[in-house]
């Protein structure tokens, strides 16, 4: 089975491919537009709530509040939005990686109807929101430790994103609904954890979903090859 560092290295090498750059441009624009819209709605809603509650605050406090909300939203919502958007463009990434490294798998690639893509993306989004909401109390208890709370959210989102990236590739080649999904749990966790870390870094967070999808493509196909020749 291919190692995660090898899969990441191959994914990074292919970032210069014009087809990958095209997907990167589309996902970045849609992600930033959605993120900005959600941030504006959240800020406007909170402002209206505070005004209706009779809470007075200065322009300085308003600015501080906007900064805090932006940071918190960027920490959580950006990765949620980025992974949701990737669901609709991931096939282009998968096809590009497969065309170069796994051309023999083209015959097994199935077209996923838009309805199925929307349903999968919606379930993924719901899992992310519910899992992070469930992790909040645990993170709150560990907040005083300084590293406990971030570690909890890292673990939760690493698991979710690792599974999500695997499914983005595997579901496009799954011949039988009962077929066992490839890639071990540990590899999925490390892949998801790497993407979560990249999503926290400005500018690299735009590349993270693409790198994750390309890496997952390598991992899934090498795992399936190993199973076929076992």
From TrEMBL:
Keyword Membrane: yes
Keyword Translocase: no
Keywords: Membrane, Transmembrane, Transmembrane helix
Transmembrane segments: 32-51, 63-90, 134-162, 189-211
Stored InterPro entries: CysZ/EI24 (IPR059112)
Topology term for the membrane: Multi-pass membrane protein
Subcellular localization, as worded in the UniProt entry: Membrane
Official protein name in the record: EI24 domain-containing protein
Lineage: Bacteria, Pseudomonadati, Pseudomonadota, Alphaproteobacteria, Sphingomonadales
């Amino acid at each position: 089975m291919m190692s995660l560092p090898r899969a990441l290295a191959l994914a990074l090498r292919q970032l210069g491919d014009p087809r990958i750059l095209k997907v990167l441009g589309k996902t970045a624009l849609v992600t930033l537009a959605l993120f900005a819209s959600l941030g504006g709605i959240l800020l406007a809603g909170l402002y209206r709530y505070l005004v209706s509650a009779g809470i007075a605050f200065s322009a300085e406090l308003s600015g501080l509040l906007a900064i805090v909300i932006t940071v918190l939203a960027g920490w959580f919502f950006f990765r949620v939005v980025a992974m949701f958007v990737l669901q609709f463009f991931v096939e282009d990434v998968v096809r590009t990686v497969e065309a170069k490294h796994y051309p023999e798998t083209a015959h097994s690639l199935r077209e996923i109807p838009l309805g199925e893509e929307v349903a999968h993306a919606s379930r993924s989004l719901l899992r992310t929101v519910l899992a992070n909401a469930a992790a909040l109390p645990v993170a709150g208890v560990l907040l005083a430790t300084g590293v406990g709370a971030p570690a909890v959210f890292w673990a939760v989102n690493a698991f979710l994103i690792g599974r999500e990236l695997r499914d983005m590739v595997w579901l496009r080649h799954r011949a039988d609904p009962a077929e066992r999904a490839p890639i071990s749990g540990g590899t999925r966790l490390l892949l998801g954890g790497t993407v979560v870390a990249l999503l926290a870094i400005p500018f690299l967070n735009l590349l993270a979903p693409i790198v994750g999808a390309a890496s997952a493509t390598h991992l899934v196909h090498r795992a399936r090859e190993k199973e076929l020749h076992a």
